[in-house]
C-alpha cells in the first residue's frame, strides 16, 4: 500500500500489521506528549514557595530552557522505532511499453467541388480538415501522413509521429494548390507509394472525396488491387448531401453568389475500392456524420499497447532504527552531562 509518492519513489508499508504498528506508535507518541505537557501544566500551577518574589526575579538559564528538548528527542526516538517496526521499503518503478504502431495515410480531395456549403456554416473542405485534425489528436503511437489531390496528387506530409507538423501542414491545405479535377486513382497510388516500405503491422488509407474520378492516368481499381497486394486497407468516405448543393461563385460585378449543382459521388466505385482492400465505405451527409465516421475508423484501427511494470524495493527500516537509537543516545548523553538536572 503506497504511503508516499515523490519523484518516482514510493515509501511503502506492505502489510496490514505495518499500518497497525504505525497507528499504535502514533497513539503512544501522542499519549507521551500529552502526559509531558499535562505534567508541566500541573507543576506550573502548584505552589512550592511561600514567597515567589525571589523566583520571579530570576530568569531561567539556557540549560533550563533547553531541558524540555530532551523529551522531544525521546518522542522522536520512539516515533522512529515504531516506523522501523512497520518495515518501510523504498521502491522505484520502471515501465516498459511494447507497441506495434499503425501507419495511416489521410487522402483528402481539394477539388473545387469541395467548396460546396452543404455542411453549413462551412464548406466541405473546412469540415473535413477539422475532422482529420480531431482524428489525429486521438492517435498516440501511429505514424500519419497526408496526401491531397484534385487533378493530380501530392504528398503534403510524409509519414511522421510529429503530429504538430501534420496539423501545421493541414492548415496550409486549400483550394488552388493543384489544377482542378478528381484523380482518385492517382490519390490511391500516391498513398500506396508512401506505405510501400512501411513495416507497420497495419497499413491504412483513409480517402475522402465528393466526386467521381475524371483523371484516367491511373485507374482507381488498379490502385486498389495494388493496395490489396501490399496488405493496405482502404477506408473510403463520400462527403456531401444527396441532391443539389450550393456552390459559391465569384461574379465580376455582383461579387459572391451561389448556384445549385448536383452532387456526383461515385459511391459504387468507392464501395468497391473498400471491398477489394478489406476496408469499408462510409457516406457523410453532414458534419456530425463525418465526425462519427472518423470516430468509428479510430475505434476499428487501434494500436495494441502492452505495458510491463517493474518495481524494485529496498529495505530502509534500518535507517529508521538507527535514527531512533541515535536520538535516544543523544538524549541520554545530554541528560547526563550538559542538561543534567540537579536534585
Structural class: alpha/beta
H/E order of the elements? EEHHHHEEHEEHHEHEEEHEHEH
- Could you give a short account of the major beta sheet? 6 strands, mixed
* Arrangement of strands in the largest sheet: 6-5-4-7-8-11
Number of H- or I-type helical stretches? 11
Describe this structure in words.
The structure is a single chain. With 343 residues, the protein is α/β, with parallel strands linked by helices. The chain has two domains: 2-93 and 309-336, no CATH class; 102-302, Rossmann fold, CATH 3.40.50.410. It has helices spanning 16-45, 53-57, 62-66, 68-85, 124-137, 163-171, 184-195, 220-229, 267-277, 287-300, 317-336; strands at 2-6, 9-12, 89-100, 102-109, 143-149, 153-160, 202-209, 232-239, 244-251, 255-262, 281-284, 304-315. The strands form three sheets. A six-stranded mixed β-sheet has the order 6-5-4-7-8-11, with helices on both faces. Strand 1 (2-6) and strand 2 form a beta hairpin. Helix 7 runs parallel beside helix 8 (220-229). The relative contact order is 0.15.
Describe the structure concisely for a colleague:
The chain is α/β, with parallel strands linked by helices and 343 residues long. The protein is 43% helix and 27% strand.
Please write out the topology:
Layout: E1 2-6, E2 9-12, H1 16-45, H2 53-57, H3 62-66, H4 68-85, E3 89-100, E4 102-109, H5 124-137, E5 143-149, E6 153-160, H6 163-171, H7 184-195, E7 202-209, H8 220-229, E8 232-239, E9 244-251, E10 255-262, H9 267-277, E11 281-284, H10 287-300, E12 304-315, H11 317-336
Parallel strand pairs: 4-5, 4-7, 7-8, 8-11
Antiparallel strand pairs: 1-2, 2-3, 3-12, 5-6, 9-10
Amino acid at each position: 500500500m503506497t504511503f508516499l509518492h515523490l519523484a518516482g519513489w514510493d515509501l511503502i508499508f506492505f502489510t496490514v500489521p505495518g499500518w497497525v504498528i504505525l497507528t499504535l506508535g502514533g497513539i503512544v507518541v501522542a499519549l507521551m506528549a500529552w502526559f509531558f505537557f499535562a505534567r508541566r501544566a500541573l507543576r506550573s500551577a502548584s505552589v512550592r514557595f511561600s514567597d515567589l518574589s525571589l523566583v520571579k526575579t530570576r530568569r531561567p538559564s539556557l540549560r533550563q530552557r533547553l531541558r524540555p528538548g530532551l523529551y522531544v528527542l525521546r518522542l522522536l526516538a520512539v516515533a522512529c522505532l515504531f516506523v522501523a517496526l512497520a518495515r518501510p521499503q523504498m521502491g522505484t518503478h520502471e515501465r516498459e511499453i511494447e507497441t506495434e504502431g499503425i501507419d495511416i495515410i489521410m487522402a483528402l480531395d481539394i477539388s473545387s467541388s469541395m467548396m460546396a456549403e452543404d455542411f453549413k456554416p462551412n464548406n466541405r473542405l473546412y469540415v473535413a480538415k477539422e475532422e482529420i485534425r480531431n482524428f489525429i489528436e486521438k492517435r498516440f503511437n501511429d505514424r500519419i501522413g497526408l496526401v491531397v489531390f484534385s487533378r493530380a496528387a501530392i504528398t503534403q506530409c510524409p509519414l511522421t509521429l510529429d503530429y504538430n507538423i501534420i496539423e501545421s501542414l493541414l492548415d496550409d491545405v486549400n483550394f488552388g494548390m493543384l489544377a482542378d479535377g478528381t484523380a482518385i486513382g492517382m490519390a490511391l497510388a500516391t498513398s500506396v507509394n508512401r506505405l510501400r516500405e512501411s513495416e507497420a503491422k497495419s497499413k491504412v488509407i483513409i480517402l475522402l472525396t465528393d466526386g467521381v474520378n475524371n483523371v484516367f492516368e491511373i485507374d482507381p481499381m488498379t490502385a486498389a488491387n495494388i493496395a490489396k497486394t501490399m496488405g493496405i486497407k482502404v477506408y473510403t468516405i463520400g462527403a456531401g448531401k444527396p441532391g443539389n448543393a450550393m456552390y459559391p461563385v465569384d461574379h465580376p460585378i455582383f461579387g459572391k453568389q451561389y448556384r445549385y449543382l448536383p452532387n456526383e459521388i461515385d459511391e459504387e466505385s468507392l464501395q468497391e475500392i473498400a471491398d477489394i482492400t478489406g476496408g469499408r465505405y462510409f457516406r457523410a451527409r453532414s458534419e456530425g456524420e463525418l465526425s462519427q465516421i472518423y470516430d468509428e475508423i479510430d475505434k476499428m484501427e487501434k494500436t495494441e499497447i502492452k505495458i510491463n511494470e517493474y518495481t524494485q524495493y529496498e529495505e530502509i527500516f534500518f535507517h529508521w532504527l538507527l535514527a531512533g537509537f541515535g536520538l535516544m543516545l543523544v538524549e541520554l548523553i545530554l541528560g547526563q552531562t550538559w542538561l543534567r538536572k540537579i536534585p
